[in-house]
Amino acid sequence: MSSLPTTPARPLPQNLIWFISVAVVLHLGAILILVLGSPSGLWWLPSMGPSPAEGPQFAKDINAKTSTYYLEPLHLSNNYHFLSNRMQISVPYFEAELRDKEGETIKTIKFPDENANFWVKHRQSLLAQGLAMDFPVQPRPGENIPPPGQRNPTITIWDLPKGEPGEMTFVLSTIPEHLIPRDRPVSRPSEWSLLLARSYMRYLCRRYGAASVKLVRHSRNPIFPAVMFYRELPPNMFDETVCDFGEYRREK
Prior knowledge:
Elements: H1 14-37, E1 40-45, E2 49-53, H2 57-71, E3 93-99, E4 105-111, H3 118-131, E5 134-137, E6 154-159, E7 169-176, E8 186-189, H4 191-208, E9 212-219, E10 241-249
Parallel strand pairs: 7-10
Antiparallel strand pairs: 1-2, 3-4, 3-9, 5-8, 6-7, 9-10
């Protein structure tokens, strides 16, 4: 029985090998940057309670570009930090004040709606949880001096209005990073929360024909089991936190 002659396999072109190797390295590098730039935790801090640890800034900046143009089309941009994994989040709700052109309140709607069916109420609950995605803000150690001709970087935080000692409604305030208060815990809304607030206020204006909408979020911190070991309860433990996302005016 005669055997067929075998021909040696042709090696891949050197240029193709280099191209595939570079593509694999860039792909794995984009995934590594996504992992490196994702927050970790929650970690317990004595002064701030449970807090996530943010990734390095350079990784978050690179990830913002690679996720948009490369990982999102491949459905690989999720870091698997879902809301259901954040057990410290309470059950928030929010109110939308519909106003006319004169600024008078036409109607106030509460979400989630108690009279809505299960599916609508569930989606409204997810929206309320998305609006409650706040992150603690830690002041930078020392003083940050910007280069000549440049301003200090700013950050948007939840701040109490000045001149109103009895007012406990937090409002959005954009301040320089070196002016972050150091005498109390400070938090900021996530970019996703701000996007949800603006989008839903715009939708409510169009849905009800209002001239403007003001969105106010109500939340309360959960009670952790460690409270059973406290001799004295921390102050304001059962107080409700009210945060004002501001007013959105419909464009003419």
